[in-house]
Design brief:
Blueprint: H1 28-48, H2 53-80, H3 86-99, H4 103-132, E1 141-145, E2 151-155, E3 164-167, E4 177-182, E5 184-187, H5 189-192, E6 198-200, E7 205-206, E8 211-212, E9 217-221, H6 229-242, H7 246-275, H8 280-294, H9 297-300, H10 304-316, E10 319-321, H11 324-330, E11 335-338, H12 340-344, E12 350-356, H13 364-375, H14 381-392, E13 400-406, E14 410-415, E15 418-423, H15 425-428, H16 435-446, E16 450-456, E17 459-467, H17 474-485, E18 490-492, H18 497-507, E19 511-513, H19 518-530, E20 535-539, H20 545-550, E21 553-557, H21 563-568, E22 571-573, H22 580-615, H23 620-638
Parallel strand pairs: 11-18, 11-20, 18-19, 20-21, 21-22
Antiparallel strand pairs: 1-2, 1-3, 3-9, 4-7, 4-9, 5-6, 5-8, 10-22, 12-17, 13-14, 14-15, 15-16, 16-17
């Protein structure tokens, strides 16, 4: 059924997504259902008071057309493709009732059926509303600056990569990009979840739709508007809404066979008694009642509303689940593997110490600036720490050429005519020949810091000590995941064993696997898989992508996550709040419980009504009310997960 979304309300100044809510009468299904109801109520008293058929007949006929034409037409198109649609069966049953003189009962069926369809359409629209409101955050226009410093107001969707835009105080940023000039504070709570505005200056990244503060910024556009963070959020959620979970696919596969069997049973229930001498009208009425109450409408609706509601709720918590399949799979996980840097930690490490090494004629500042030049093209959080430390000291960063990166090992580039390599001591260092470097690295690692070795022209020139900050919610997240899965998460990291063990002790992890290359992380995941576990991997870097792809389900941290990790993962934590991961797992499990509840409710209604019709006499209006009532109950039960905390009670 199609849905129409109303014109959005303007975004709030606080930077939070506006609550877009589709008006009931904006939906064509609701308008047709209302028309059918009004016509039915107009004809009902005339019919009951014994007025002429010419007074109430046209009103009932109009009610039939208003409430039944759309599902009937859709059913005919499905039939042309050799698919039996239960909607068509409902319309046929209503027409059959009218044909044997039960015009009132048939009209009641049409009205209740149309109302049920309108409620389903409204539920689908409201599910989408909670996430589509993010689109309102992106401004419709932006101020583009040309080479001659001329300002031009253009549609935001016409911006291209490389354009420069001016963001004045109080305006929303028109595109994802990087600050070229100016300083301000930007409220980006809707993207990152940060409660306070973030200071922005030269080189800092800004996101489309975030709210600028008191300063003016010049921003270089780095992403096409269609690929902005907000656009990707909406696209992923819409794609998720179009997918079907394995349970839903199974139900749809069974539905066709069930519907054909139900039609055959209806024909038999009509033809056999008639052949044995039963009266036409009561026989046909019982057969049509059977067809109505045995229809699997509630069963078909049992799966997707809970899963789509869970996806929408997860989106409000800042987690983008890419498909209904993923939402169903998340509830099945019984083991968790967590990355360290950028996942359990903030992903914004700082250089705390620079140690020049004997045998090199370079001082600390020179070692740092050469390392920063080599690391500048890298996406790794440690690389950004080196670059930030160099800028903080006011040092210039030379241009590097010939940049190469080996995940889990380090980077190499040519800087000012020198070959500079930066990376893990365990990968770059031969301790037998470079004892001073090994000792310096070991001392830093024993203090819980990450040691980064800098080679210049093949000679160890210095060791950088880098410390990361543990996320405040890391320990609570580990505890929650342990409670959900029944086992403590494992830590899989390329960092050194000492630093990894120290962090693991702080958050309550006992199984630590450190110094891992990307293929080693994959091996750790496969080991759990071979043991019969369904593994959730949470990571953020390029080196996590293979493990994310191998796992039963992968979740990427969105703010610091590499593009490869974001594309590979099944879900993305957009606001970088680690504590939302147990929430989305809980949502998935709640959705799975609601699916089971819905299937039980639907089966109970169908079984009870069918037995009543076959063993006794089930009045057609009561059968209609029971059948459509079960469909509405199942749909509303699935939508409970739209409420923020409903998953904890489901």
């Amino acid at each position: 059924m199609s849905t129409t979304v109303t014109k959005p309300a303007p975004a709030t100044s606080a930077g939070m997504p506006p609550r877009r809510r589709t008006r009931v009468l904006a939906l064509p299904e609701a308008r047709w259902a209302l028309a059918a109801l009004v016509l039915f109520l107009g004809a009902l008293p005339l019919n009951l008071l014994g007025a002429s058929v010419w007074s109430w007949g046209p009103l009932f006929a109009a009610a039939y057309v208003s409430g039944g034409w759309e599902p009937g037409w859709a059913g005919l198109k499905a039939l042309r493709e050799r698919t039996l649609d239960v909607d068509l069966l409902m319309v046929v049953a209503a027409i059959g009732a009218a044909a044997i003189g039960q015009v009132l009962d048939g009209a009641l069926l049409i009205v209740i059926f149309a109302t049920s369809g309108a409620l389903e359409a409204l539920a689908t629209a409201r599910t989408a509303d909670s996430v589509r409101g993010l689109l309102d955050l992106a401004p419709a226009t932006a101020t583009r600056i040309s080479d001659g410093e001329d300002e031009e107001t253009v549609a935001a969707d016409r911006l291209t990569v490389g354009d420069t835009i001016l963001v004045r105080p109080g305006e929303r940023v028109g595109a994802d990009g990087r600050v070229l000039d100016g300083a301000s504070e930007v409220d980006q709570a809707t993207i990152t979840g940060e409660p306070l505005p973030v200071a922005k200056r030269y080189g800092d990244e800004v996101f489309a739709g975030t709210l600028n503060g008191t300063g003016a910024l010049r921003v270089k556009v780095e992403r096409d508007p269609s690929d902005s963070v907000i656009a990707r959020i909406v696209k992923m959620v819409e794609e998720a809404s179009e997918t079907k979970a394995p349970t839903q696919l199974f139900i749809e596969k069974v539905e066709q066979r069930y519907s054909l069997g139900m039609v055959a049973a209806t024909i038999a229930l009509f033809a056999l008694p008639l052949a044995l001498g039963a009266a036409l009208q009561p026989t046909l009425l019982r057969a049509m009642t059977f067809m109505i109450v045995a229809s699997p409408c509630a069963v078909v609706l049992a799966t997707m509303p809970p899963l789509l509601s869970a996806i929408a709720n997860a989106g409000r918590h800042g987690v983008l689940v890419k498909s209904a399949v993923v939402m169903e799979q998340l509830g099945q996980i019984d083991a968790v593997a967590l990355d360290k840097t950028g996942t359990l930690t903030e992903g914004a490490p700082r250089v705390t110490e620079v140690r020049p090494l004997p045998g090199s004629d370079l001082d600390g500042d020179t070692v740092l600036r050469l390392a920063a030049a080599a690391e500048h093209p890298s996406e790794h959080p440690l690389a950004r720490a080196v670059v930030d430390a160099t800028r903080t000291r006011g040092l210039d960063i030379p241009v590097a050429i010939g940049f190469t990166s080996t995940p889990g090992t380090g980077v190499t580039a040519t800087v000012e005519g020198r070959t500079v390599s930066v990376g893990s001591p365990a990968r770059l260092l031969d301790t037998a020949e470079n004892k001073p470097a090994a000792v310096a690295a070991a001392e830093l690692e024993s203090e819980g810091r990450t040691a980064v070795l800098v080679f210049v022209d093949g000679i160890p020139a210095g060791v950088l000590g880098i410390a990361d900050t543990l996320r405040p919610e890391a320990a609570a997240t580990v505890t929650a995941l342990t409670a959900l899965t029944g086992s403590s998460p494992i830590l899989v990291t390329g960092d050194n064993p000492r630093a990894a063990a120290r962090l693991a002790a702080d958050v309550g992890i006992t199984d630590v696997r450190a110094g891992l290359l990307p293929q080693d992380k994959v091996s750790a995941v496969r080991e759990l898989h071979d043991a019969g576990r369904k593994v959730l991997v949470v990571g953020d870097g390029v080196n996590d992508a293979p493990a994310l792809a191998t796992a039963h389900t992968g979740i990427a941290m969105g703010r610091a996550g590499s593009d490869l990790a974001l594309e590979t993962a099944d879900a993305v934590v957009v606001r970088d709040e680690l504590g939302t991961i147990p929430t989305v797992v809980g949502l998935s499990r709640a959705a799975r419980r609601l699916v089971v509840q819905n299937l039980v409710i639907a089966a109970a209604f169908i079984t009870g009504l069918v037995v009543w019709d076959l063993a006794g006499h089930l009045p057609l209006p009561l059968g209609v009310a029971g059948h459509e009532g079960s469909t509405v109950v199942v749909g509303l039960n699935g939508l409970r997960l739209l409420a923020d905390r409903a998953w904890q009670r489901a």
